[in-house]
Amino acid sequence: YLTAYEQKEHLKDEEEFTDILEERRRTTDLGYALRTFNPQPYKGAPTLSTSDLNKAVLESQYLCYIIKEIAMETGSSVEKVKEDASRILKEMSHNLQLGFIRLMGYTLNKVFKRLYRSIYVNMEGLNMLQQAIQESPVILIPNHRSYVDFLIISYILFTYDIPVPVIAAGIHVAIIGGLLRRSGAFYIRRAIGSDKLYWAVLLEYVQTIVRTGYAPLEFYVEGFRSRTLKSLVPKLGMMDMVLEPYFKGEVFDITLVPISISYDRVLEESLLALELLGVPRPKESITGLFKASGVLQEDYGCMHVNFGRPLSARQLCEGKINWSEYNLIPRNLPQRPTAETQDCVNWLAHLIVRTQEEGSLISPWSLMACLLLQTPFTTLTEEGLQWHQLTEKTLWLRKLVLDFGARLNWPDSEVMSSTVALHHSIVHHKEDRIYLVQDEDPARQDPLSPEEGVMRMAVVVLMLVSYRNQALHVFVRPGILATLFSFFCFLQDVFSNEFIFIPGRAVQDFEEACSLLQKCGAVHISQQEVIVLETGLEVLSFLQKLLQPFLDSYQLMFRYLCEKEDHVFTEEQFLPDVRNLATKLILSGTTEDQEPVIVENWFPLAQILGIVSQPAYQSLFLILALSLQSADFNLCVKLEK
Amino acid sequence: MKWNGWGYSDSKFLYNKKGQAEFTGKRYRLSGMIIPGLREWMESTFGANLQHKTPAAPILNSSAVQPPTLNEAFLKELKSTGIPFSHDAEDRVFRSHGHCLHEIFALREGKIGRVPDLVVWPNCHNDVVKIVELACKHNVCLMPYGGGTSVSSALECPPEETRSIVSLDTSQMNRILWIDEKNLTAHVEAGIVGQDLERLLNESGYCTGHEPDSMEFSSLGGWVATRASGMKKNIYGNIEDLVVHIKMVTPQGVIEKSCQGPRMSTGPDVHHFIMGSEGTLGVVTEVTMKIRPMPEYQKYGSVVFPNFEMGVACLREVARQRCAPASIRLMDNEQFKFGHALKPQVSSIFTSFLDGLKKFYITKFKGFDPNRLCVATLLFEGDREKVLQHEKQVYDIAAKFGGLAAGEDNGQRGYMLTFVIAYLRDLGMDYYVIGESFETSVPWDRVLDICRNVKARIVRECKDKGVQFPPLSTCRVTQTYDAGACVYFYFAFNYRGLSDPVHVYEQVEHAAREEILANGGSLSHHHGVGKLRKEWMRETISSVGMGMLKSVKDYVDPNNIFGNRNLL
User: What are this entry's molecular-function GO terms (chain A) (predicted)?
Assistant: First the structure.
């Protein structure tokens, strides 16, 4: 299977990552939890207790200024506003305690050893992080694909004697929230809106942590856990707050460490699919946790945590920031960043997410998911896909991915069958054929209603879609090129809310895509023209198909918007409506009286339940899934205007 | 005076046969003493080594100096005035530079660039008037020269200048013309150097109190032309507060005010066109200055703080209460260690025992971290009663910020170092170490940030530029104001292994200045702009500001007779 060169490369990759569970399996959990923990913090930074931190925040000149301002505006007394601020801070603040870190270490040790075969960490990245922490305040920015992400970084840092981070988290629920608080989580409300006092407390709190640098700060630049396992367009609020101390010169530099966490199998895979389909997610409560304990019996393969090269904000922002804007206003007064600064932060945030993408490891399963989703639906549900067909195609795709420069998690030639076994909730392997898992519950008596059937299938397909999405970033650039060559830039624009493009880099992205396609022999690029080669059709068609569903889904949205009679609607109403339209289309099986463009694209879709002839059914599920992501909603509204 | 280093020829640091550092001569308190800690400090701070020497060229090679471009007509008329002049190579080279690192480094290597073609020594205001008239008539370029202590490349001859360059040396205009005891002013010729002015005034029981670190050599005219600042400005004020009347000779004639009123509302103060003009508009010839009776009592002092942050907070509080002593300076930890290394050999066991006891008390008993603590040096002046009262007030404030009084001796040594530190650079240059200081002024809320960031920037830039050894990057807060402070940075490194050390040095200094400006610091507090910092003038004072200054220059000196090309 592997050429000598590939084997060598592969060995190198192996060396890069160390399984940190291996040692844990040899020692006792208690011994681990009680180990000496003596991290080296940021140079000269005094340790700051929770109460000292909160006191510093409340007494800060900035917050006092805002409190006075609010008191003036609202006519209430300064004391009253101060109390409000104090309450907000209480709700927000972390309560990092070494004892709880140890408890967390002990528990996670047990859990992780059960769930995962291995947790691979790149030691070189960890070493660089250790170094960086001593030089400047460090911001850890992992991608967010699973709840497991939440404490894995703390767990690793505790293991390697590096100061454990304080973590920005969404608003929490009683008991478990309290536990996480003690492990270093602080809480941010989901919708802050125009609550001036809340913003002020948050800003001062975050910046005090950054300025003192006594612990790394961890946050998710994507804002939410990605339910489609695809990177989300970064949110800029936290990024702004975190970088401002550097822009104001309150710290010499800030080190940003993108972290890519990749899972063979995501713990809450079916939960994600249900959430995408609009089934409300369970609250993060104790009962939820117990329910999750069924999860503990399962095998989730390996996890890779790739600590990216520390990035210096100072170096990255060089020449992009005009400092003098900060020179004429006192430090402690609120100041709106200029457009120039905002652009810089936006660019930086995108760069971080791209770096996360590049640092993540593509699993064989992601590749298989790509292929399965391009297989005719009936093949998967009825005849089954021949195993050797799948493996051959997977190996072909593997080469393509490597040509595209992605990192691949491909330990040995057995990996394809083992990965299929790992994902028994999605596919099953019978008599040398692969089938989609159709009904998990054979005991059921009544036949499913058509709607329920769609839903049931949707869950499985969406899981596949999610795993496919993990590899999407590798293909997205050449994919776009293959899809709509002349509209490359147009599409980048359309997709800027869907995938990560560093703003202002369309030309480089285009060139990158071209060179990748040339590298795999799909196109020939001479000085004047680009020629699509015979040999490249396979690659091009693969890439094309990969992006088609996204276009289809956008089109459905447009159709909904065009058909809609009243022009005012709410977000809550919009998503279910689109979902209904999709279901209706499928069930009606015909769209004859529609405009030709839409008919063309939706005709095959409509036939899913009957005679599916094209692999476009996934588009449907994707639309069903476009549920909670407001970015997509915004785009639609924007385009409608 | 040395021709390629700082100060008097008889005073310098050297390593004696035993490898101990020693300061020669008799002029300073440190003169003739052994400094046992210096060698180890130099070795550990810079990685310097006594084996690796970089000695300077001992004597000036006159043949390396370009022959003068003389304007014969000008020379002929100058001769007829009887004003002394010279085109001797040594005289010209001596007036071709200030004390920037690159200037001294080049001299030590025997490299001589463009130098003035002629040196003239006017003896009085009228001589200057004659010289300027002749210069205008014959279109020669005039460059005023006072004490030659510039650190802004202000004395460098512009290489593009094709006219004959005449250095106008004011050193012979060094008399006090009168003292007015009723109004407490003195009328002084502008060529007088600081120490002579103080000495002469002291003889009559007065002083100006203006003591810039360069006061041994810098001149009154230079102070006015660069907006100088003195160590004791808290009592006496900076030069702009001290000056009552200025007489300056320009190509358009003499500018002076008609009276000596203490304050006037007569449009923008024309003195402010003169102060800071850096020799681009004319020559300051006479100045009326405020004088004060000599202080009855002087007392030094020092305070140790657990860290720099506390020290700055204390200085800020002192400024807030407006109770700053004549001088208050805060050194960071590196400079504290440096000061420590410069302690002369103690003669008695008792003193060293006491020193040990003090150290024990501060680090062990009080728990100060020797790698974080810092020291403020203080100088009180006035009548005895008030000084003691003032002293108590300041020490009480210091105590609130964890400060411990650390004795008069430490304070006094701190101020003495001011005068010898420039000599020390010459010692460093003998052993591959180059460095310099630069300054800024900054609002209080940015003092800590600017100190931290500029120091860190220097370290990072050195690393990036391939400097093989960690640099010395240290700072001190040297002046306090109501709204901010003056910060001084010292920066030096061992340049072994670098092919063009001066270029590296300049790049790092440039980056450090960018960092200062980015952190809200000023382009200069008192060193001036010269040619070294010209590139930042527009962003500093805005395009309109530049236009205002240019239009003054265009009116006063349309033919650019005062063509040193500083400032604009």
Answer: glycerol-3-phosphate O-acyltransferase activity; glycerone-phosphate O-acyltransferase activity
**Helices A596-606 and A537-563, packing angle to 10 deg:** 110
Residue numbering of the annotated binding site of B: 144-150, 226-229, 278-284, 425
Residues of chain B scoring pLDDT < 70:
347-354, 356-357
What's the pLDDT score for residue A637? 37
- Is B260 part of a structural domain of the chain? yes
A454 plus A535 within the same structural domain: no
In a domain, residue A70? The reply is no
Q: Which of B293, B317, B344 is the last residue of a domain?
A: B293
Q: Which of B372, B446, B539 is facing A249, going by the closest CB pair?
A: B446
> Which residue is closest to A136 within chain B, CA to CA?
B456
Number of domains chain B is built from: 2
Q: Is residue B167 domain-resident? A: no
A8 and A120 fall within a common domain: yes
Instruction: Please answer yes or no on whether B445 and A330 come within 8 Å at the CB atom.
Output: yes
Residues B257 and B338 in one domain: no
The residues, ordered by sequence, that sit 6+ positions from B188 with a Cβ below 8 Å of its Cβ are B175, B176, B177, B197, B220, B286, B287, B288, B289
Task: Please state the domain count of chain A.
Answer: 3
Verify that B317 and B289 share a domain, yes or no. no
Least confident of A2-6, A98-102, A376-380, B64-68: A2-6
CA angle (B397, B403, B409) in 5-degree steps: 105
The end-to-end CA distance of chain B, in Å, is: 32
Domain that holds residue A246: 2-31+97-359
Which one of A97-101, A509-513, B525-529 scores highest in mean pLDDT? Answer: B525-529
Q: What does the pLDDT read at residue B163?
A: 96
Domain, as residue range, for B257: 176-293
Residue B553 in domain = no
How many CA atoms, within 13 angstroms, populate the side-chain half-sphere of residue A256?
A: 27
Rounded to whole angstroms, how far apart are CA atoms B416 and B424? 13
Which residues on B lie below 8 Å from A44 (Cβ)? Answer: 372
pLDDT digits (tens, 9 = 90+) for A247-303: 999 999 999 999 999 998 888 787 777 777 776 655 554 455 445 556 667 888 889
Task: Name every residue whose Cβ is closer than 8 Å to that of residue B182 and which is 6 or more positions away in sequence.
Answer: none
- Residue-level pLDDT at A31: 82
**Annotation marks residue B505 as catalytic:** no
A249–B457: do the CB atoms touch at under 8 Å? no
Assess if residue A613 is contained within a domain.
yes
ipTM confidence score: 0.85
